[in-house]
Specification:
By secondary structure, this protein is of the alpha+beta class. It has 17 helices and 14 strands.
Length: about 500
């Protein structure tokens, strides 16, 4: 008996405990200062954060009614809440990665949860699934069931709702940048189930939907008339404002007129910063977890004297359990870009590699990660010599449109140098996803003011020059082919 007790005690002691995600010392120098203000955004304290119970519920797929396993719905009615990540079963780094993989794909967003019987019935109505994309097992991407202490609820996926790519053959890659869905797909969730207004009014209690949209984007120190008009009424449809391109989404602090594309999280490990404008440092899985918490409500939206939220809104409404977020951070930093299964002939690759060196690309896109990890300047920004990120600043601009980096609440004044690892598999290029291929990237026609980008165009029109990164635009045709062949091996 004594041996059995000792063995049980040893087993309990070996269970993994995640690090404390919301740590005051780590938060102190995590965010990059806002260029226009010269100060960092504020954060909630660890005491405020951990005063809220951690959310950790297992979710279950929503199937097309004709593909639902026999007895599935009845099973869900009887199911008790289960943890999405069970830390008592984690013993190793491999276990953390496995748990994070599951959490990344299955985690739901509590702001979207609903027990409305009409919406639940709609999510089980075959008519709601006309032309909706089905994964091989008959389930859908967007919606999930979640069994909570209040019973079964309909919800939306969190991480994987945006970070997925549907391949032409119908398979789904989670973590990748999205592109244009195959032409026969009209939606990824049941038609008639729109939980976005519900989520926004929960996130911004007391606001109308229009006011909540305005609050997401308003910049008090540099008001944009297009954004300010949203306070009274929506000037565009929610679809146009929030997802004007399949690869882009207007996240909090950005703008529908200054897109930040959904990044490829498979190459996160090669970055020193999170977000295209380097809003936060990336020092390890804790920072990935911290950012996931930040964008899901652990954000007071305070910028010095400028407060975005009302008093009633300025609190943490929920948080995910540390083991959920930490496992996702460990998982994402374990990933890397896939290799191109169909590379060009070796002589063409080698010619391209030499061009890559000759043209000076290796100055910023340094092998083997094909990034320096540094920050380039947005046009018009001259950071102070004592900027806290000064060691990573390259004091030059590559001419990229400065709208996102200077005129939004993501306005650090910088664009980070992206890695070129996996660039062959990226359906959108540049920070805003304006371009859809390497051929378009190196086409000088994109600079012309009447150019129609093949990617993100914006809510107000199709024609605009795609400025920035002029390097390689003057190559001869055979040189361009060689360079692209090399880039597609990375």
């Amino acid at each position: 008996m004594r041996i059995l007790l000792l063995a049980a005690a040893a087993s309990l002691l070996s269970a993994a405990e995640p690090p404390r995600i919301w740590d005051d010392a780590a938060l102190h120098d995590w965010a990059t200062p806002i260029a226009a203000l010269g100060i960092r955004p504020s954060h909630y304290t660890a005491a405020d954060y951990y005063a809220v119970p951690g959310d950790n519920y297992k979710t279950y797929p929503v199937y097309h009614p004709s593909r639902e396993p026999k007895g599935y719905w009845e099973m869900l009615q009887k199911q008790k809440p289960q943890p999405l990540v069970d830390k008592s079963k984690i013993r190793s780094q491999k276990d953390w990665i496995k748990a994070g993989h599951t959490a990344f794909e299955q985690l739901d967003n509590p702001y979207f949860r609903t027990a409305d019987p009409k919406l639940i019935a709609r999510a089980r109505d075959p008519e709601a699934f006309k032309d909706v994309f089905l994964m091989p097992d008959g389930s859908i991407i967007s919606s999930v069931w979640v069994v909570t202490d209040q019973g079964i609820m309909l919800s939306e996926r969190e991480c994987s709702l945006c970070h997925h790519q549907i391949r032409p053959n119908g398979t789904v890659t989670f973590g990748a940048s999205p592109g244009d869905d195959p032409p026969d797909i009209t939606d990824t969730g049941p038609i008639g189930v729109n939980l976005l207004p519900l989520a926004f009014t929960r996130f911004f209690p007391g606001d109308t939907f229009s006011q909540a949209v305005w609050r997401q984007f308003t910049v008090p120190w540099a008001p944009d008339p297009r954004v300010e008009a949203l306070k009274e009424k929506l000037t565009h449809s929610p679809v146009a404002l929030f997802r004007p391109d399949p690869a882009g989404i207007s996240r909090f602090h950005g703008s529908p007129w200054a897109m930040a594309k959904i990044p490829d999280l498979r190459v996160l490990r090669h970055s020193r910063y999170i977000d295209a404008t380097a809003t936060h440092r990336l020092r390890g899985p804790e920072d990935v977890a911290r950012y996931a918490a930040f964008v899901n409500g652990a954000d007071p939206m305070d910028f010095g004297e400028h407060r975005i939220l009302t008093g009633a809104q300025r609190k943490i409404h929920f948080r995910f359990a540390d083991e959920v977020l930490y496992s996702i951070g460990v998982y994402l930093l374990s990933l890397d870009a896939p290799r191109n299964p169909n590379p060009a002939p070796k002589p063409l690759q080698e010619a391209g590699r030499k061009l890559f060196a000759r043209e000076g690309c290796i100055t910023c896109h340094v092998p083997p990660n094909y990034t320096s990890g540094k920050l380039t300047l947005a046009q018009g920004y001259n950071p102070p010599a004592d900027h806290p990120n000064h060691e990573d600043i390259v004091r030059l601009s590559v001419g990229t449109d400065p709208e996102l980096a200077l005129r939004t609440r993501k306005g650090t004044g910088f664009y980070k140098v992206p890695t070129l690892r996996g660039v062959w598999d990226r359906p959108r290029l540049l920070h805003d996803g304006s371009l859809t291929s390497l051929e378009e990237m190196f086409d000088p026609a994109r600079l012309k003011p009447d150019y129609v980008p093949k990617g993100w165009k914006g809510p107000d029109g199709d024609r605009r020059g795609v400025q920035g990164h002029p390097f390689g635009l003057n190559l001869k045709d055979d040189e361009r082919r060689a360079l692209l062949a090399f880039l597609r091996t990375l």
